[in-house]
Amino acid sequence: MNNEIQRYTPSERSNHWAVAILFILAGLSGLALFHPALFWLSSLFGGGPWTRILHPFLGLAMFALFLIMAIRFAGHNRLNANDRQWLGQMGDVLNNREERLPEVGRYNAGQKLLFWVLVLCMLVLLASGVVIWRQYFGHVFGIELIRLAALAHAVAAFVLVTSIIVHIYAAIWIKGSVGAMLYGKVSRAWARKHHPGWYKDVERQRK
């Protein structure tokens, strides 16, 4: 156990997995409403009417819990000079030549960019979702704005889903990342290799 250090607290992990579950539910219900060829997915939610009712509430719950997570991690995701250098050495990143890269803190530049893309997508989804939520706001907005919001909602959802696929792939690609979010701990060797700046900060706080 002395060889392990905590990367995520139980609260942070619970928050992450709650957002992940809501993302899946909101995504599936959204796809059911997006195109007739995908309408069969509505059977997962009790049919078309229930899917239409549940989707915006699932989206609101996802946004609320994501907001908590974003506030928690925003400070760790500020881009700095090392991050710009890291992005400029993408060849070394893709070929796992981590010894050539600048020192990485709790998150690398790729993770930070993904974080801000997710924040932007969530904000667009929330704003556009309110506009196209006809049951409560159909009388507030004009049809042109509703059409524009529907397009923005679809584009933001596509970018969000694509980003999450990248997020999952990267978590699997870097062995130990999934375990960190499942169990909260990583080995010291993992931390030194992938996030040496963060590892040094953790060790300094222990002394």
UniProtKB/TrEMBL annotation:
Membrane topology: Multi-pass membrane protein
Main location: membrane
Pfam families the UniProt entry points to: Ni_hydr_CYTB
InterPro entries: Cyt_b561_bac/Ni-Hgenase (IPR011577), FDH_cytochrome_b556_subunit (IPR051817), Formate_DH_gsu (IPR006471)
TM region positions: 17-41, 53-74, 113-133, 145-172
Cytochrome b561 bacterial/Ni-hydrogenase domain ranges (all copies): 7-175
Record protein name field: Formate dehydrogenase subunit gamma
Protein species of origin: Geopseudomonas aromaticivorans
